[in-house]
Specification:
Elements: H1 12-31, H2 38-49, H3 55-62, H4 66-78, E1 82-86, E2 94-98, H5 100-122, H6 128-139
Antiparallel strand pairs: 1-2
């Protein structure tokens, strides 16, 4: 096996991961005063966008395993931000919705996340999000 013709830290993959990690840390700092992490914020935003979404659906959208999602949902439910109930047609499926407290904290969290998004966009060319979407689609067209 031959080594790449460049240093690993100069690769596109490394740069993408480094940018993603920096965004995640920035979001965590912005969300911390609200008692949320970036992954918890992502879960709440997906529930807001799709009330009643299943645990498995949330796991796919958040890029985590169903087991990890179950633990995240249990924590958010214990904090009073989410409510879960069995699906009336499929008892094993849990449907998730925001509580009033969840909606209130999420409104504040959107402002915090927007600060991170604004900082990231200020450092990138205008078409960066479109480029990253094209890369994602080229590597995983599903």
């Amino acid at each position: 096996m031959t080594s790449p013709p460049y240093a690993p830290y100069e690769s596109l993959g490394y740069a993408l991961k480094r940018a993603q990690h920096a965004l995640r840390l920035h979001m965590d700092r912005e969300l911390r005063p609200l008692g949320l992490s970036a992954p918890q914020y992502a879960v709440l935003t997906h529930v807001e966008a799709e009330p009643g979404v299943s645990n498995a659906g949330l796991a796919r959208r958040a890029f985590v395993t169903p087991q990890t999602m179950q633990a995240m949902l249990a924590k958010l439910e214990a904090a009073g931000l989410l409510a879960r109930a069995p699906d009336p047609e499929h008892g094993r499926i849990q449907r998730t919705e925001l509580t009033e407290a969840g909606r209130a904290i999420l409104a504040k969290a959107h402002d915090a996340a927007l600060r991170s998004e604004t900082a990231a966009r200020a450092a990138a060319p205008e078409e960066a999000a479109r480029w990253l979407t094209r890369i994602a689609e080229a590597l995983d067209p599903t």
